[in-house]
Amino acid sequence: SQTIHQWPATLVQPVGSPLSLECTVEGTSNPNLYWYRQAAGRGLQLLFYSVGIGQISSEVPQNLSASRPQDRQFILSSKKLLLSDSGFYLCAWSGQLNEKLFFGSGTQLSVL
Amino acid sequence: QKEVEQDPGPLSVPEGAIVSLNCTYSNSAFQYFMWYRQYSRKGPELLMYTYSSGNKEDGRFTAQVDKSSKYISLFIRDSQPSDSATYLCASRRGGAQKLVFGQGTRLTINP
Q1: Would you report the helix, strand and coil content of chain B in percent, each value rounded to 5?
Q2: CB distance A90–B43 less than 8 Å?
Q3: Residues B14-60: pLDDT tens digits?
């Protein structure tokens, strides 16, 4: 069966520090991969998605970037965090037919 | 106008009640409809998945899609305190990469 791993679960970072969140998927090949952000009490905002290695689509201009160095690995990064980057970050995957989207357990990021 | 609208609640009902959660959408091209359940500080969990119009039942949960009125519903029968969570509806077009989410409704089931 397929599983998605996302870490860390909680992260507290100072303003201006770098960020690297990692997500890996097991049990499937060539998944579509996604990064979402969920602000407190608000819906899910799609940040990036990827249909293959090195292929990244950005949904909103912001202080973040994403990379997909391997088929089942998706990384969310920032060179300098802003206060507004705080939120709950979720990695997700779907098969190539896009039928269903499955989420990881999330990372609560607090930028202080 | 948001493509998927959902009343954020909160909604509070007694244990054993029938719960009705609803969303509306504006894009007539949407063909796939999903409901997710999200516990606090956890990732959303896929609860129901439907294609086009009609009903789908899974245990105590029933998902209903009315494409003529662009209305999506989730019914929970015999609600339990463990059903207390935020419920998110989501939709997408056929072939689309992106899922469009509602804001989520926070539900509390009181023992």
Answers
A1: 5, 60, 40
A2: yes
A3: 999 999 999 999 999 999 999 999 999 899 999 999 988 889 999 99
> Does A47 have pLDDT greater than 80?
yes
Contact (CB<8Å) B49/A99 = yes
Interface residue B79 vs chain A (CB under 8 A): no
Residue A105 confidence (pLDDT): 96
Amino acid at A50: S
What are residue A85's phi and psi, to 5 degrees? -80, -10
- Separation between Cα atoms, residue A64 and residue B57, nearest integer Å: 40
- List the Cα angle A35/B6/B26 in 5-degree steps: 85
Which chain A positions have a beta carbon within 8 Å of B104's beta carbon?
A: 43
CA quadruple A49, A46, B3, B18: dihedral sign:
positive
